[in-house]
Amino acid sequence: EVQLVESGGGLVQPGDSLKLSCAASGFELDSRIMFWIRQAPGKPIEWVAAITTNGLGKSYADSVQGRFSVARDNAKNVIYLQMNDLKIEDTGMYYCATNRPPNFPERGPGTQVTVSS
């Protein structure tokens, strides 16, 4: 059974940084392309970043390109999302998820990121 648990969210000011972590268990993480997705209140799920199984291939949504960086440590079964220069529009619940778009049903409970001045 796929189990994912996100952590690292919080309340920050515009321009601040946060690093999210996602602990994976119950499956072979190194065999899965993984995603970070987010959802703001009243808005649909938005894909944020993706990373290939070996971590060498990374893709980002235009809205976060140049500010966010995804990484993984397969030996530790962890996925990371480094978020720099946070903006108010980055506010939302952040999830890590397996590669099952568009609804990404295999995801954790999420970690809340709130960017507010």
What order do the helices and strands come in, and which of them pair?
Layout: E1 3-7, E2 10-12, E3 18-25, E4 34-39, E5 46-51, E6 58-60, E7 68-73, E8 78-83, E9 92-98, E10 111-115
Parallel strand pairs: 2-10
Antiparallel strand pairs: 1-3, 3-8, 4-5, 4-9, 5-6, 7-8, 9-10
What does this structure look like?
This protein has 117 residues and is mainly beta. It has strands at residues 3-7, 10-12, 18-25, 34-39, 46-51, 58-60, 68-73, 78-83, 92-98, 111-115. The protein has a six-stranded mixed sheet, with no helix packed on it. Strands 1-3-8-7 form a four-stranded antiparallel sheet, with no helix packed on it. A hairpin with a 6-residue loop joins strand 4 and strand 5 (46-51). The protein is globular and about 40 Å long.
Short description:
With 117 residues, this protein is mainly β. The chain has strands at residues 3-7, 10-12, 18-25, 34-39, 46-51, 58-60, 68-73, 78-83, 92-98, 111-115.
What are the main properties of this structure?
about 120 residues; mainly beta; six-stranded mixed sheet; about 45% strand; globular
Mean pLDDT: 96
User: What structural category do the secondary elements indicate?
Assistant: mainly beta
How many alpha or pi helices?
0
Sheet with the most strands? 6 strands, mixed
Shape: globular
Element pattern in H and E: EEEEEEEEEE
Uncertain residue ranges: none
What would you report as the Rg, rounded to the nearest angstrom?
13 Å
> What is the helix fraction of residues, given as a range?
under 10%
- Number of E strands: 10
- The order of strands across the largest sheet is 2-10-9-4-5-6
Report the β-strand fraction as a percent range. Answer: over 45%
Q: What is the terminal-to-terminal distance?
A: 40 Å
